[in-house]
Amino acid sequence: MHIKGTRISVEIILRKLFHNISIDKILQDYSRFTNKNIQTALEYAAESGHGEEVHLLRVVNEINGKE
């Protein structure tokens, strides 16, 4: 699955998050992305079981500005 409107796969985003690359850095690297794109990728991963290794709570907190 790809991020809507891009050729970037959800898996690429999940791998970056797994390797502790910040959401700010991902948004900087992929200027067309928004927090909503990242959140949607995480929701997809959680629903499909692909995100088991990702620290979802940390990432969601970062998106929501709680970290």
Descriptive terms for the model:
single chain, 67 residues, 57% helix, mainly alpha, 4 helices
Shape: globular
* Number of beta strands: 0
Indicate the structural class.
mainly alpha
> First CA to last CA: what distance?
28 Å
Number of folding domains? Answer: 1
Order of helices and strands, N to C?
HHHH
Write down the Rg.
11 Å
Uncertain stretches? none
How many helical elements? 4
Average residue pLDDT: 78
Helix content: 55-70%
Oligomeric status of the shown chains?
single chain
Beta content comes to: under 5%
The major pleated sheet works out as:
none
Note down, in words, how this protein is organized.
With 67 residues, this protein is mainly alpha-helical. It has one domain (10-63). It contains four helices and no strands. It has helices at 10-18, 23-29, 35-48, 56-63. α1 crosses α3 (35-48). The N and C termini lie far apart (28 Å). The model has no long low-confidence stretch (mean pLDDT 78).
Write the layout of secondary structure elements.
Elements: H1 10-18, H2 23-29, H3 35-48, H4 56-63
Brief rundown of the structure:
With 67 residues, the protein is mostly helical. The protein has four helices and no strands. The protein has one domain.
